[in-house]
Amino acid sequence: MRIATGGIAQETNTFQREPTTLADFERPGFGVVARGEEILDLEGTGTVYGGVVAEAKALGVELVPTTYGGVMPGGRVARSAFDTLRDEILVALRAALPVDGVLLVLHGAMALEDHDDGEGLLLDAVRDLVGPDVPIVAPLDLHTNLSDAMMAGADAFVGYKEYPHVDMPRTGARALQILAATVRGQARPVMAHARLPLIAPNQSMVTTWQSPLKIAIDRAREIEREPGVLAATVLGGFPFADVPFAGVATIVVTDDDPPLARRLADELATICWDRRAEFAVRPVPVDDAIAEAMAAPPGSVYVLADIADSGASGTAGDGTVILAGLIAAGARSAAVAQIMDREAVAACIAAGVGSTVTLAIGGRHDNLHGPPVRVTGAVRSIHEGGFALAGPMGAGTRSSRGRTVVLEIGGPGGIEVQLTEVRGHPHDLNYFRAFGIEPTERRILVLKSAAHFRAAFEPIATKVIEVDAPGISSANLANFDYRALRRPIHPLDAGARWSPGA
Ligand SMILES: [Zn+2]
Predict the structure, then answer these.
(1) In this predicted structure, what is the pLDDT of residue 501?
(2) Looking at the predicted structure, is the pLDDT value of residue 7 above 70?
């Protein structure tokens, strides 16, 4: 059995004004473009391909790799970047024909500069090439914004069930199992989906506690054990995308039983709809969060999550409001990961390790993440920025934030700020350890992350506080200027209605 594979994966925050370019995909530690055999080298990593490659060996399936491009969430993908990657996939796929099936690795919330539905376009192009009889299966991120074109283009989808996404390898493996069973004639996947008039903040989708989405996902796991069901998926959607089809959706794949798929997709959607009020998230005011952390007993580790400036949601990564609050409060034993500021990095490197600098940091990208903050601090260390991920997400891959400076404000034991050239999302303890900071020994850790930090940091945290600082991954969805999103939709409009089968 020969299965062609490749894909394009990016999550688009349409409120991020900077487009995502091919150079972003190709920047080591920020994106990855794997060509041909390089895809197979991802075996064993904490990625979708980590699971796909291992499962192919277990199933005796020959994977025919094309091109895979993945990158940190960000602004809309430049059309030239999409076209380049799509064409590489199609050229290699054409050369590989005939194949028995196609496994496409997608995110599910990729928007292009001139088109809201990148996945729909890619699926269409692949379908045009392989024809209607070659099955196409794709794993999807939990933050997929599911479009009709996506549903029309694939034979089966399987979504992640964990947020933080610690189940990427497992989801990839499951997608390949379904595809292989289809090729062997052991299964005939049929899909049904339900798209709710509901957008939800990312933080309400977390699965390390019984969030409203987790309750539906738990039921999806039960459904997957029922006879005739191949996959059951609950998608939280990605709310920071102003596209018509953003929001919560469900997909159920059955073995040639359309009414069963329909009924179960509606059942999962009903769970989410009935709980729609519970998807509201109320983060803690900045000053309250800092005061609570400062008053905690010695030895405490407080995570102050800067959920509205989450690099993994495509934000600026240079928000300053929590840092300003720490300085104003005279906080000690605090470490901030991270503030992207290329100019500040360059100035600190020019000054050199050990020197004292006074400069404005952060708040340069736009006016949505707080103003630049003027600080005086010591340049404690300078790093090339690359490091290995070792935690529950992405283990075995490398990350890089570009050149990185640790600036110490208030002397030893004060506030350590990492200044970086590239925005990040601190979801691994090595985001501190690689830069000489031991996170278990700090009173306050400021993490620019909506939720992915939880997999690595909840185990070391005395308490996690979601902080209400400004930014384009804010839980306050009413603050976003949606223009393309379908209306009415909960929680923006009182008139949103849904019932099964609607
Ligand atoms: Zn996601």
Answers:
(1) 79
(2) yes
Instruction: Give the DSSP letter string of 185-204.
Output: TS--EEEEEEE-SB---GGG
pLDDT tens digit sequence for 342-398: 999 999 999 999 999 999 999 999 999 999 999 999 999 999 989 999 999 989 999
Measured between alpha carbons, how far is 266 from 259 in angstroms, rounded to an integer? 11
Chain segment 125-153, per-residue pLDDT in tens: 999 999 999 999 999 999 999 999 999 99
Which residue, among 290, 352, 298, 341, has the nearest Cα to 319 in the 3D structure?
341
**Ramachandran sector of residue 195 (left: φ over 0; alpha: ψ -120 to 50; beta: rest):** beta
Give backbone dihedrals phi and psi of 177, rounded to 5 degrees, phi first: -60, -45
Asked if residue 478 lies in contact with residue 490, where contact means CB atoms within 8 angstroms, the answer is: no
Ligand 1: centre distance to CA 313 (Å) = 8
pLDDT at residue 156 greater than cutoff 90: yes
Query: 73 C-alpha vs ligand 1 centroid, how far in Å?
Result: 9
How far is the C-alpha of 133 from the C-alpha of 172, rounded, in Å? 22
Q: How far is the CA of 145 from the centre of ligand 1 (A)?
A: 11
Q: Which two tokens stand for residue 407?
A: 């600036």
Name the nearest CA neighbour of 474 among 239, 291, 295, 252: 239
Separation of CA 193 and ligand 1 centre (Å) = 19
Q: Which two tokens stand for residue 212?
A: 């409203």
Read off φ and ψ for residue 263, nearest 5 degrees. -65, -45
CA of 252 to the centre of ligand 1 (A): 19
- Going from the Cα of 20 to the center of ligand 1, the distance in angstroms, rounded, reads 17
Query: For helices 212-224 and 258-274, what crossing angle results, to 10°?
Result: 160
For the chain, give the mean pLDDT.
97
- How is the chain split into domains, by residue range? 2-279, 286-474
Q: What's the whole-number mean pLDDT along residues 450-463?
A: 97
Q: Are 9 and 106 in contact (CB under 8 A)?
A: yes
Task: Encode burial over 402-413: b for 16+ CB neighbours within 10 A, e otherwise.
Answer: bbbbbbbbbeee
User: How many other C-beta atoms can be found within 10 angstroms of the C-beta atom of residue 299?
Assistant: 9
Cβ atoms 293, 285 nearer than 8 A: no
Q: Residue 502: what pLDDT?
A: 65
pTM assigned to the model: 0.96
Please work out, in degrees rounded to the nearest 5, the angle formed at the alpha carbon of residue 381 by the alpha carbons of 380 and 382: 145
CA–centroid distance, 236 to ligand 1, in Å, is 9
